[in-house]
Write a structure and sequence with these properties.
173 residues; 4-stranded antiparallel beta sheet; Alpha-Beta Plaits; alpha+beta; 3 helices
Length: 173
């Protein structure tokens, strides 16, 4: 999705059906992802990294700009609920939404735990995917080692929850 000649689109499907929708899109010749986030989850009294859907029900896929998607074929994929579009009727992602998908692609659709340093009441990301995501931390769940990041008013996707781990400032390198 990094090439200039690519358009990126978003589908909404039944939560839990993301993998089969992605496989069907691949069969139709599209590159598609349903992003995963690695989060800390309690397992036998300890926190372990476990995969979870970053945005349950959301699938992003791309096409060559000269090759419009075959919407009738896409609508026939089981579990697809709707093709997302802007109020003006356009479907190709733009601006902050397009940039968000570019960020996901840099990490192959898998958002790992980011390392953060506590600086007074704020945290600063020193390593990992959140270091280069433009957004604002709006909530911290220290017991689950997660943060809610607001992507801003320009994005159709408002908040994503991602895993963090605190490190000492010296580790930055």
């Amino acid at each position: 999705m990094e090439e200039l000649g690519q358009d990126v689109y978003c589908l909404f499907c039944i939560a839990g059906g993301e993998s089969s929708v992605v496989k069907n899109l691949h069969r139709q010749g599209y590159q598609a992802i349903s992003p995963i986030v690695l989060k800390w989850k309690p397992v036998n009294g300890q926190l372990k990294k476990r995969p979870d859907r970053l945005l349950p029900g959301y699938i992003f896929f791309e096409t060559d700009r000269n090759n419009m998607p075959d919407w009738s074929d896409i609508r026939t994929i089981r579990k697809v609920l709707r093709i997302l579009q802007y109020d003006d009727g356009t479907r190709a992602l733009r601006d902050a939404d397009y940039e968000f998908v570019q960020w996901l692609k840099r990490y192959s659709g898998v958002i790992d735990v980011s390392q953060a340093v506590q600086e007074g009441t704020k945290i600063r990301f020193v390593n990992g995917p959140l270091k280069d995501l433009s957004g604002t931390v709006v909530k911290v769940n220290k017991s689950r080692k997660q943060v809610a990041v607001n992507l801003g008013t320009e994005s159709a996707i408002k908040i994503v929850w991602c895993g963090i781990e605190y490190v000492e400032a010296e580790i930055e390198g």
